[in-house]
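Q: For a teaching session next week I want to show students how multiple molecules come together into a single three-dimensional assembly. I've collected the sequence lines for a complex. Could you give me the predicted structure tokens for the whole thing so I can convert them for display?
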Amino acid sequence: GEDVEQSLFLSVREGDSSVINCTYTDSSSTYLYWYKQEPGAGLQLLTYIFSNMDMKQDQRLTVLLNKKDKHLSLRIADTQTGDSAIYFCAEVDGNTGKLIFGQGTTLQVKP
Amino acid sequence: GAVVSQHPSWVICKSGTSVKIECRSLDFQATTMFWYRQFPKQSLMLMATSNEGSKATYEQGVEKDKFLINHASLTLSTLTVTSAHPEDSSFYICSARVRGPYEQYFGPGTRLTVT
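A: Of course. Below is the structure for the complete assembly, covering every listed component.
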């Protein structure tokens, strides 16, 4: 079946850039997403990228998509302590329209 | 942006009782809503897909008689955990999909604890 993989943990210092990586298997995915989950809360849609794009930037967030390698990354510039959370990468299953989530990357931001 | 609410945010119930969780899209109509379950430090597990006015589609391994889903209107879906047991304790999250680019917006989640 379809699969999405992420590294589980990333630690950075406040002010540094964070890069969270994700690989996926469904080449027919039209959209790929990044969600943020803070403790005890639901998921917040951060951004998404259409599969015919290579890059999308939204304020401090930059999404890069390498469709050939099926690799997606999320870069957070000037990372703040409020960015500490779990970040989920997700793709849309081309057949069912369902979201397939990665395991989530815990981002720890040290002051 | 699109807002999805869930009620209650947390509930504690005794084993054998039933619990209903509501999911509402507040400022948009959602033809499709999803129910997920999340265990601590794990990703979300899709339980079922709910389309307004029709029966929910359950994922493999999810008991439809135990987790009853009703999607009576374009803004409301409910999940009822029937005859709850301690192993049903979990974080339940709903989401609603808008038309177009498959954007899904998530509710804040409901923490269920069965004693």
